[in-house]
Amino acid sequence: MFTTFFFWYCALVILGCGLLAISLRNPVHSVLSVLVLFFHLAGLYLLLQAEFLAAVQVIVYAGAILVLYLFVLFLINLKEELKLDAFVPGVKLGRGIAVGLFVLLLWALPSFTAGQHGQWTSKLIEENGHVQTLGLEIFTQYLLPFEIAGVILLMALIGGLVLAAKIDRPADNKTASVPEASGQQMEKHP
Amino acid sequence: MISLHWYMGLAAALFCIGVCGFLTRRNFIMMLLSAELMLNAVNLNLVAMSHYLESLRGQAFTFFIITVAAAEAAVGLGIAIALYQHRRNVHTDSFTELKG
Question: How far, in Å, CA of B89 to CA of A172, rounded?
Answer without folding.
Answer: 6
